[in-house]
Amino acid sequence: MLVSSIAKFNAINQMSNSAFAMMQNSNAMMNNANGHTFGGEHDLSMLNQMDKKLSLDLVTNKLLYKISYLQEKMAEKRLEAECKKNGSTFTTLA
Q1: Model-level pTM?
Q2: pLDDT of 48-65, one tens digit each?
Q3: What are phi and psi of 91, to 5 degrees?
């Protein structure tokens, strides 16, 4: 039961980290679009590279969020099954 709880909390933590990283990437993309991070340069290849990197980071964090969400749901089901098996009156921790 402890292992399932730890797995569930780790998945929730990863979801939180991924959501925060998505927010940071979105903010960085908006700053790039507004032109605040270029220092006056008008190099479009640099802008293109930054846009590709931030877009890839955003997609990666979305995938990590979805995977973590599924891990959390699996851990929750396992925890409920263990509680039923052990006859515990506490079905979930959250």
Answers
A1: 0.67
A2: 788 888 889 889 989 999
A3: -90, -30
